[in-house]
Amino acid sequence: MNSFWKTLLLGSLSLGLLPAQQTYRQYVASETIALSGAAASLTVQAADPAVEANHASILFMSANLKCDVDAEMIISVDGTAATATPGTATPVGLHRTAALADVFTDSDVGAGTVVGSQNVTADKSGVFDLAGQSLDNGAATTQNLSLKTDVLTATCTLRIIWRAT
Description:
Layout: H1 3-15, E1 25-38, E2 41-46, E3 57-67, E4 71-77, E5 89-92, E6 101-105, E7 113-120, E8 125-129, E9 134-136, E10 144-149, E11 152-164
């Protein structure tokens, strides 16, 4: 690259003329649970604004479910706020900062509004594309997204993947 183009590129960057690359922090919440005539749930919830001052958008990517029997995978949003059984969000990739959302496993989250469901064959992974689902972190603790199973006797793994801006 000749010096003219280098100068033009560096000048554009320093003046903010080229768009800045968006930085995303990616997270995964996962739970493996043995069920006996019960349902499982995994919830990602907007952080309480009284606790989390960092305002960020939570952009969901996918959810998946794998059980050792046939099961129904249910996605719901905005149930009554979960308060019991905190889970863990694991950072993925280069930006290993604490998650800006709360995770609950097998929680007391309310039913919410069902936005999708699908049947999953035993020992296969059911994947739900969550593009377009988001939470406005710090806005309200009642914003959440849950992955649930129907009532069954099985061992299941539930997983939700999201990113924060």
